[in-house]
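Duplicate of #3305? Posting structure anyway:
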């Protein structure tokens, strides 16, 4: 298990300093589809994600790899998550090490230690995902990706002075 390095210091001064990740589930028919997301804490932008019908280490590794590529392969990012088995796995830890990232983990049973990504999932489910879920996996993936795009480019955040994450990052550049 990794130490709790982040210690709820959610305000960061630049992009690619701290990312946080988590996994949630979305109903698809009579099954669950798992959705892993990676958020850059600077502007609360979702920078990586993946979907799977199995919640395993590969799910979170794919989301991390997407973030690494989309953000230009930054080195030395602090990656914070809960203590889920996906994040404590050797596979995920090796993926972090391959990119030169440091791992931080929430304390056991402390959901507030990863509040920004938990808030994102809450918004996704309350604002967007149909109450009955989706009929097909394809429909779910497409619709959740639409939300991520909207969230990053159009959804206003009080944390960002009522700007979208993309706008906040552009203004800081």
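Output from current build:
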């Amino acid at each position: 298990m990794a130490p709790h390095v982040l210690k709820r210091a959610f305000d960061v001064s630049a992009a690619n300093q701290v990312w946080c990740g988590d996994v949630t589930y979305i109903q698809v028919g009579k099954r669950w589809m798992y959705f892993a997301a990676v958020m850059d804490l600077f502007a609360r932008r979702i920078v990586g994600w993946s979907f799977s019908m199995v919640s395993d280490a590969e799910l979170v590794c794919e989301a991390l790899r997407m973030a690494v590529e989309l953000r230009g392969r930054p080195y030395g990012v602090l990656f914070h998550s809960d203590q889920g088995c996906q994040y404590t796995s050797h596979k995920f830890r090796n993926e972090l090490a391959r990119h030169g990232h440091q791992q931080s983990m929430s304390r056991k049973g402390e959901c507030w230690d990863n509040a920004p990504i938990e808030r994102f999932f809450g918004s996704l489910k309350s604002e967007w995902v149909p109450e009955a879920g989706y009929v097909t996996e394809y429909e779910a993936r497409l619709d959740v990706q639409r939300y991520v795009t909207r969230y990053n480019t159009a959804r206003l955040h009080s944390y960002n002075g009522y700007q979208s994450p993309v706008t906040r990052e552009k203004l800081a550049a």
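Confirmed duplicate; merging threads. The first strand starts at residue 18 and ends at 28. Helices lie at 57-70, 85-88, 90-98, 115-127, 137-153, 165-172.
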